[in-house]
């Protein structure tokens, strides 16, 4: 964090043009989940979402220094090894959330900026809810209630009950704990199906089709958002095969693009090789400005959960990249 702050201060005086030229990093891939001015109970206990005003400022900054490109152009640049003269950017969103249709699309349309969304196919049409969003809802519910049922502490095996310990324990739960997550919700009378029905946090098929007509691209973000490093190779392949099949059959989305749920950390080379052999054009991680041993795997810059302006985020990524370069750490090996 201290290093980031120092970098932010130093980078303010160096123009983007010089940074992109020194590093030869001319493709910027900002990554968000959603944009909202309202507090979203299923997200608010996990990370901070950027509001529309900040998002518009991000776009103004990006458009001033980089040319917006669509996903097909990005693929052409990578697959044909095209030299990029003027720096470019492509915006992507993970998880397929509703506000992309209601808040983001009108802003991007007005500015003529293309975007890509990575969908969890089990959650399209609000048929299911990501286990981390369930956890945020439980925390939201617990924080709003005056008394916490002792049973919840017992279920989580917390010896010294406190709201903080409860929150910490809940945030540690994994997808393999989903039965327990559902049981806790039940014990506090929190009904996820009702939440999905009345709040519709995800995009539905109609909205996805409409956005596709406007030039938006869609890819897979797996079926139900597991951490890939915790899956067997067969389970990893199943997540991809079934989500790609769904996109193709149900939504006529045949170009295969994939963004790793959570992170690509710890995923072995054999899976990456299988991915590209199975017609996946590009895959995406969230490691910031970094190169990868697999040229079709691109790293994006997270914009959620950071209070800094786009200018600071991008410039500190450039400086961080340069520092890593000296230590030979700006390429991820697998
Ligand atoms: Zn995600």
Layout: helices, strands, pairs:
Elements: H1 2-11, H2 16-23, E1 27-28, E2 30-32, H3 52-65, E3 67-68, H4 71-79, E4 88-89, E5 91-94, H5 99-111, E6 115-119, H6 131-144, H7 150-155, H8 163-172, H9 178-187, H10 192-199, H11 205-213, E7 217-220, H12 233-251, E8 256-259, H13 269-277, E9 280-285, E10 291-292, E11 297-299, E12 301-302, H14 310-326, E13 331-332
Zinc ion is lined by residues 94-95, 221, 225, 261.
Write a compact overview of the structure shown.
The chain is of the alpha/beta class and 334 residues long.
Describe the structure.
With 334 residues, the chain is of the alpha/beta class. The chain has two domains: 2-121 and 217-332, Glycoside hydrolase/deacetylase (TIM Barrel); 131-196. Helix content is 47%, strand content 12%. It is built from 14 helices and 13 strands. The chain has helices at 2-11, 16-23, 52-65, 71-79, 99-111, 131-144, 150-155, 163-172, 178-187, 192-199, 205-213, 233-251, 269-277, 310-326; strands at residues 27-28, 30-32, 67-68, 88-89, 91-94, 115-119, 217-220, 256-259, 280-285, 291-292, 297-299, 301-302, 331-332. The strands form four sheets. The protein has a five-stranded parallel β-sheet. It has a three-stranded parallel β-sheet with strand order 1-4-3, with helices on one face. Helix 5 links the parallel strand 5 (91-94) and strand 6. Helix 1 (2-11) crosses helix 14, helix 6 packs parallel to helix 9 and helix 12 (233-251) runs parallel beside helix 13. The radius of gyration is 20 Å and the shape is globular. The mean pLDDT is 93. Zinc ion binds next to loops.
């Amino acid at each position: 964090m201290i290093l980031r702050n120092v970098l932010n201060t130093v980078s303010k005086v160096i123009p983007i043009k010089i940074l992109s030229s020194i590093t030869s990093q001319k493709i910027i891939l900002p990554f968000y989940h959603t944009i909202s001015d309202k507090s979203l109970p299923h997200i608010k206990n996990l990370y901070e979402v950027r509001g529309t005003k900040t998002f518009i400022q991000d776009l103004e900054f990006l458009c001033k220094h980089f040319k917006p490109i669509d996903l097909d152009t990005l693929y052409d640049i990578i697959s044909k090894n095209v030299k990029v003269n003027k720096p470019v950017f492509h915006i992507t969103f993970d998880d397929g959330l509703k506000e992309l249709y209601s808040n983001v699309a009108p802003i991007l349309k007005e500015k003529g900026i293309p975007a890509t969304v990575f969908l969890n196919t089990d959650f399209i049409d609000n048929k299911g809810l990501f286990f981390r969003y369930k956890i945020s809802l439980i925390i939201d519910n617990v924080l709003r209630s005056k008394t916490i049922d002792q049973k919840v502490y017992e279920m989580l095996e917390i010896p010294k009950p406190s709201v903080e310990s409860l929150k910490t324990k809940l945030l540690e739960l994994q997808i393999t704990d989903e039965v327990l997550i559902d049981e806790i919700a039940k014990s506090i009378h929190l009904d996820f199906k009702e939440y999905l029905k009345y709040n519709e946090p995800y995009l539905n098929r109609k909205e996805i089709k409409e956005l596709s007509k406007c030039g938006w691209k869609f890819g897979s973000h797996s079926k139900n958002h597991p951490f890939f490093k915790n899956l067997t190779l067969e389970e990893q392949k199943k997540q991809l095969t079934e989500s790609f099949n769904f996109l193709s059959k149900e939504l006529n989305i045949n170009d295969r693009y994939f963004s790793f749920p959570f992170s690509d950390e710890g995923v072995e080379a054999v899976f990456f090789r299988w991915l590209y052999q199975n017609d996946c054009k590009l895959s995406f991680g969230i490691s910031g400005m970094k190169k990868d041993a697999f040229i079709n795997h691109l790293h994006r810059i997270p914009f959620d959960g950071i209070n800094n302006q786009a200018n600071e985020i991008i410039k500190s990524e450039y400086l961080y990249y340069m520092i890593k370069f000296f230590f030979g750490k700006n390429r991820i090996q697998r």
